[in-house]
Design a protein that fits this description.
alpha+beta, five-stranded mixed sheet, 27% helix, flat
Length: 81
């Protein structure tokens, strides 16, 4: 089973918000997931990024692969800290 860290879309039409989730790579984009590790809202100014770095690092150590979008968000969170 390949595990990925990726975004799960929530929110209304034309008002997206995202959850950063750990999911099986075979699951649908908004389907089953293992754990929610953060939130991302691109509509606020500046965009709101909340990610639990400890949980993300723990999942990455277990072999989870972050998507490109999540990798960029993790780098932005790390730069802010």
């Amino acid at each position: 089973m390949a595990v990925h860290i990726r975004l799960r879309r929530t929110g209304r039409t034309k008002q997206p918000a995202y959850r950063v989730v750990v999911a099986d790579s075979r699951a649908a984009r908004d389907g089953r997931f293992l754990e929610i590790i953060g939130h991302y809202n691109p509509l606020t100014d500046p965009p709101t990024i909340t990610i639990d770095r400890d949980k993300a690092d723990a999942w990455i150590k277990k072999g989870a692969q972050p998507s490109d979008a999540v990798r960029n968000l993790l780098n932005r969170v790390k730069a802010q800290a």
